Amino acid sequence: MPAPAFDPLRVWAIGSQALGFIMIITLETVLGDAARPWQGGVLAAMIVCALGVALARLYRRNRARKARAERQGERD
Questions:
Q1: Residue 21 CB: number of other CB atoms within 10 A?
Q2: Measured between alpha carbons, how far apart are the two ends of the chain, in Å?
Q3: pLDDT digit string (tens) for 2-54?
Q4: What global pTM score does this model have?
Q5: 61-73 as b/e, with b when 16 or more CB fall inside 10 Å?
Q6: Which is it for the CA torsion 30, 33, 37, 40, positive or negative?
Q7: Cα–Cα distances in angstroms (integers) from residue 14 to residues 43, 51, 64, 68, in the given order
Q8: CA–CA separation, 4 vs 64, rounded Å?
Q9: What is the chain's Cα-based Rg?
Q10: Where are the domains of the chain?
């Protein structure tokens, strides 16, 4: 079965990374050298979002695998 054309997790991943990079560049532009701690915070938030998306994808994959295994068990 092919993957769906629209994947909300992919949208979240791309959107959060794009927003994070825009914020990092904007902070550098507005605050100059004083932006370093804020940029670190934004980077940490980006990493947390990426880990959240990865965990959600793993959960979905395991749930689908379990459902497939149950369907296979019903056929036997």
A1: 13
A2: 21
A3: 666 788 899 999 999 999 999 999 999 999 999 999 999 999 999 999 999 99
A4: 0.78
A5: eeeeeeeeeeeee
A6: positive
A7: 14, 13, 23, 29
A8: 14
A9: 19
A10: 9-75
